[in-house]
Amino acid sequence: MTVNPQASALQPVPPALPAPSLQEAVQAWEAFGFFRPLLEDETVRLARRLCQAFYGLSSPERDDASPLSLYWNLFERLVGYGELSRTPVIGDAWQNYFLDSLLSVETAFSRKAQYGDEGLGAAMREGVAQELANLQTLFRLSADWWQDQAQRACGGSAPAWKDVRPLAEETGSLPQKARWAMKTALAGCPDWREAAPALAHYHSEFGSGVFSDYLAFRWEGQLTGLTRPDPIRLEELVGYGRQRAEVIENTERLLAGFRANNVLLYGDRGTGKSSTVKALIHRFGDRGLRLVEVPKSRLADFPLIVNELKERPQKFILFIDDLSFEEGEDAYKEMKAVLEGGIAARPDNVAIYATSNRRHLIREVVADRQPTFNDEGELRPGDTYEEKMSLADRFGITVTFLAPGQEAYLEIVETLARQQGVEMEAEELRRLALRWEMRHNGRSGRTARQFIDSLAQEKR
């Protein structure tokens, strides 16, 4: 069984296998091993309760809700999930949700498989194969089966969740394409025991848990996956080729398993510093690169972040955008600890990339340069000044993005115009571009893109 992550979303799903009996379904719900964390999902747990209610069994979670009430609850969850999806729905609403949950759940199997599908022990391989056969029984509970059971138990009508229409039929990012291909392969597999090697390979290629679902994350006390990260590609960025080459080279070192440098991208606003970092996941996501955006206010969480990432085979860039500190802020000390390594040392699979409009990251004031004392009575304030200014030196690599000169700015404009198919006489384009930058934010790559976007809209 092979899985092609680039498979077309238009490929049909093979016909579903016949649904099991109610007794077989109830038995399958009790046969969870490695995949037991699936039962922590509220919707999956609700489906289990409903099956037990159909069969007349009591449940530790059972309350006074009738089977019909449970059915309506499950109906709302499944149909809502399918209708709001931005990727193709495989099978019916239950089957699509079940497949997504199966691929997202973190298990001992997925965590071991992410290090290489050839490294699984015989006991794990055999156990997973048998468990997948039971999971296939639950997948085979079609929409018609659920509706029929509800109508039998309640003696009335129940809505069907067979046909749902997602918001979009796009496979999107590389993880989403790989997931769609794996879901399609499972849906069409006559015996899921044979799918165990393909599932292990899926996790070895794309990771386990949330790391198989997303390329980019935001740290908010915990990792939150970004469904639609900035789509900018390195190929779309114009100018600053030497600077980007330095960032790319350091990133390739990280991916090769070497200890990469932390990088400070410093320079004028609108020159593409942040876009350079964000674009890296689209170039290297298929090689295991993941991006984690960390707000400055969360720098103290570095030990927690490291603990979350250090045992993963993926490589991570901790991205701190627009890093700077005002006078009186002492959060720069947290940043120094992060860069120099405290109790929670930076692991080899993590590098810190920060952008800033300030070369030394901290706003300078005249008092910082006083040689002996300042108005606050601090002795040797110059030492404090040196401590602050040394923060930027903790980055192994500093890459400078300066505002382009006029000719460089116009070259960026002309390149973007070609990319977007804007046709105009060269002299007219240059004249309008110079007028635009004078009236707006000055010369920068961002200004050039805003000008071309506006021009392209006018030409439509």
UniProtKB/TrEMBL annotation:
Superkingdom? Bacteria
Pfam families per record: DUF815
Ranges for domain AAA+ ATPase: 259-383
Q: InterPro entries attached here?
A: AAA+_ATPase, DUF815, P-loop_NTPase
Q: What is this protein called?
A: DUF815 domain-containing protein
> Where are the coiled-coil regions?
none
